[in-house]
Amino acid sequence: MNAKKESPKSRPFFHYLLFFSILLIFVLVMGITLSDYLVSSQHYRENVNLIMNETEQNIVGSIYTIDTGLKIFDDTMNSRMEEAFFVFHEEYRRSGRDPSSMDLYSIKERLGGEMDLYIINESGVVEFTTYTPDLGLDFRTSIPYFYEYLTRIRNSEGFFPDRVVQEHSTGTLKKFAYMPTNDHRYILELGLSGDSFKSERNTLSYTKTLEKIRERSPFISGIRIFTTAKREVGNKSFVPDESFDTLLSTILDERRTIEVTDQDSGTIRRYLFIDLQDEDYGADMSLIVEVVYNTSIFSRTISEMMVYHLGVSILAFLMASLLALFFARILTRPIEQISDDVDRIAGGDLDHTISPSSAREFNTLEESINSMVGSLKDTIQKLQMSESLLSRSEELYRGVVESQTEFITRFLPDGTIHFANDAYCRYFGLDCTHIIGTRFVPEIPEPEREMVDRHFRNLTVDSPSSTIEHRIVMPDGSIRWQQWNDRAIFDQEGRIVEYQSVGRDITDRVNAETEIRELADGLEERVRERTLQLEAANRELESFSYSVSHDLRSPLRAIDGLSSILLQEHAEKLPSDAARYLEKIRDNTRQMNRLIEDLLNFSRTGRRPLAKQEVDTGEIVLSAYQSLRQEYEERAIDLVIGYLPGSRADPALLRIVFMNLLSNALKFTRTKKIARIEVGSTYEHSRIVFLVRDNGIGFDMRYGDKLFGVFQRLHDDETIEGTGVGLAIVQRIIHRHGGEIWFHSEMGAGTTFFFTLEGSNEGDR
Asked: Could you tell me if 430 and 446 are in contact, meaning their C-beta atoms sit under 8 angstroms apart?
């Protein structure tokens, strides 16, 4: 039977039945699907947020720990800089308090050459300095808060050390310190170059630590660190654009964490402001950590869940609508039976089937409804499977939380605990099955209770999380240190509904920091005492050098000058023996001058600070040989220069080494028709060994232990010229470089000197 043959009275019933059947199925399917989707997506978002919070807590804790270590390291250089200020301040006094008449570069050399000098006037401008990029730097306009700090220093007394910071003009690391002049007109500033401590300080690295955290988190696509000077840590070439500069300025001005969502790139950028400002220092060491979360993972999962549930609901609705249409079209007299059957199915009895009918149309309707019921059962089974998967995901998340070493708990504003992981319960000796629903508050020593209360009162909607460190009294009466990161969770009206706390025991860290500070204090005292001893020894050595240079050379110059006058003006009047004696006197005078010069060089090599750098060893050898060759132009010399790798050494001192070794080789090959000298290198025991070999007269190895002594000579003075100091100078220079020197010689067959330099490069080997 078709619709055209139906009576008009049957049509309203058909329409109503079709409409209500479709509506009922739509509400049923969409209600179940929507409810399951909302529950699943909410659980997923909560899990993701918890993981993000724990990650950020690890970042903040790591930053605080590294900053503590860096602060302790930076303070170890204070005593050295404070002593340098005495020289700086004394030169200011000697200049008549006129900085324009001071030779800052000379003072810098006196202080070892590693510290730059600055003089800041009352307007906060660098008026005089050895570091030209900062000349004219105006702190009043460029860094207003630091100008206020300088003003307080200028009106105060004493020594004011600062942290190691990035230099304003170039971004290089420097350790700064300040001292006002006695007339309070200027501030004297010292800046210790980072080259003297950079390698040791870099063992504590923010970037390496955060990179490890990033590698462990699948949701983090990038981590960057920025200083209060808007420079990126580890990237000297970084220059923020206008919008990013404005964002950093906002964070620094408000000193709070900001979140930026970028829908186009599918990322959430959390800018964590970590307050490291210390009132004891002028520099603000606070950091901004940019954590980039890849929201595409979250969005993709949510989208997949939505598509899956939407597809299931659409399929079920279409199938149900089709079946309802067929059902309405072929409805006949046994409508009550069919209605009863449908009511039972709608009531949840999906195993019930439509009663058989003799009518062909109802047989078709029976099959369609039964098919619809089967589809609904499949859909419900799929939904149940989805719920099972979600339940397993929750169990997995709980397993991850329970496996954490940190203490994790969630509690209501009145203190009632509704979640605590195993680590929390084990630490406090509690039973996790009984603690839920109870109020447990660890005992806090009286002096710190107000601090903890204030900490929780300061949690607001704008600043919902904060970190605190304090002591607790354990059940056994012992005192432990803890670090807690607490987050307040608010409802839509801004009221706190619960707290989430993640804590860890930091007793070992606090004890270690205390021990480090005590060791650092003791080390500073020992360094100061040793420095005073060395300064006294240097003063004695300088006095001796001056005596040698002045008191000894003056009579020798007089003897040499008078002898020369006698030989030039009165030679015809002198007997031959007298002239010969005068020449002998002049020769001995010149020998004495050479001896004095060698003694002074020997003294200077021990006091001169090392200035190591990468040098071309071959060029230094050629330069030394060319300087010596002029004295031996009449001799036949075969110089062979082999492979000489680059070295890390003081170029001036290394040239003295080769000058003395080549001079020895030239002197001890005087009897050879052709002097053969070889300079090269070899590789022994994983190190580079330099050598200087000659075919000279050699010496007896039995007396080799005297070779490097001052004034020690193994040949007659009349045969071989020299003072016996050159090899002692060579040995001292090699030892100052951390190397060693040795030799091999045979009488009549020549001598070979071997030496190493700590840090020699392997070249292309």
From this structure: no
